[in-house]
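Table S2 (continued). Query chain:
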Amino acid sequence: MSNSGLRAALALALVSGLVSGLESGFAAEAAAGGMYLPTRGVRPTGRGGAFVAGADDLSATWFNPAGLGHLTSPAALIDVAFVGQSIGYQRIDSGGNILPAVDNQAPGIPVPSLGYARPLGKQAVLAFGVWAPYAGLARFAEDGPQRYSSVDLSKSLIVTAGVGVGVRLGERFRVGVTVQDHVVALETKIVLSGCPSQTTCAPEDPDFDSVNRVDQDSFLNPSGSVGIQVDLGKQATVGASLQLPVWVRGHGTLHSRLPASGFFNGASVEGDRADISFDLPAAMRAGLEVRPGRWRVEVAGTVELWSQHDEMRIEPRDVRIVDVAGVGTYELGPMVVPRRFANTYAAHLGVEGRPSASKPLTVRAGYAFETGAPPDEYLSVLTVDGQKHLLALGVGYVIGSWTVDVLVGFAKMSDRTVAAGTGQVPQLNPIRDTSAEPLVVHINDGDYSSSWLMIGSGGSRRF
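Corresponding output:
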């Protein structure tokens, strides 16, 4: 066996060990993903997200910045994918009653990728990019059975702007780093309970429902990534990358609609500031790509540390309900949405190649399996996620100096059930009333189903 073949065999053994370890993780956390899919970008998703060792264009800014080292001339990328998440939920209420099923009413969102790179001397390249995760955002009716978990998140936005540098260290080694800013614009609508202790309320009495919307803009949430690629001869490459976590903190505006109950006749809300805080996870990726003939085959693994996403906090600042008959003033206090997410594990397999040496056509196919982040007792329509299978197909066609890419992908989550009486997501009540111990009502029992559709197109050019 040649030296390059020996290196490739050793690397394959290492990656096989990684995948075996991931499979063990799957068995341990099969009921355990997160707020977005483990892939993004038209070309990488066509490979099932297996784009770590083989990253060689501007999509490397998200998967592995070491891949930027392949760009020896100026390059540009623009693509967009429509991502829609189908959600079905049939709730069991706090009284054990099975309520009518609801479906996600949001049509899906276009998710863009933009990038530009130019060389810095002979060994380095500087890249700029703007991208967003592949995530489906949901919208439901204000009076639906799910209203205490979520009403509308479909107008929210998380966009990353990044600057990356890729460096070639000799013929076989590439390293890269990015500095990122995650811009978060949230518009969150949810129904809260407005039941005070001075009156008797049924746990889910709609007369005490209070529709609330929090608008938050957080423009500076820094993060970054590092990566490496090593060529094992001409036919194989190994790669790995680390994405750092993101701590989202920002000021927001609270818009409250008081309950319809006569208890609040003549009352009004003073103040409108509320802050939201939550954490997005670090992620580790590793992969091996082999290149037999005109084909490229990559196996990769992803670990996302969603255990860092433990809760979401909504903190009203100097917001109160005034002129409540017989009471006076209620202060609105902090509310915590427990998340208790678990780390997720994904395995990816991607194939890309040219069927004919005489035609400028590239075909792609990819598969990924990923565990889910929310354990059963904390699953809710705010984030419907679980173990899932993802299949994708793509093509690329060279037209002049441009390569045009097309993607079709589909992911299906295994149906999940939060058994009656086991849910631990509480009905939120912002009224701070110390005269009585609050009644805790859990609102996430029921059956959940979900799938994702991805359709995209874009173009890239090397000048």
